[in-house]
Amino acid sequence: MPWQRYFLNLVVREPDTRRYALHRIRLSKNLFYEATENATAQDVAKAQEAADAKKKNGGWPSKFLSCGRLPRPEIFFSARPSLTSNRSSHFFSLLPAQGEGCVMFVDQSGSVSLYDVDMQSVVAMPRGNFCKPVNSITLSMANASRRFGEHRLYVMNTTDGSFELFNHCRTTSLPYCSQFPDDWNWQPLGHVPPWLYSYGALSSASPPFAAAVVDSSTICASSKEGTYAFDMARGVWRQAGRWTLPFHGAAEYVPEFRLWFGLEGPKNSYNHRLCALDLASAAAEAPASLHAWDYLHALPDGWYPSERHLVNLDLGRFCIATRCFYTPSPEEEHDVNKAKVVSHEVTVLTGVEVVSAGDGLQMIKHKSRHYSHENMEIH
Question: Side-chain half-sphere of 329: how many Cα atoms within 13 Å?
Answer without folding.
Answer: 12
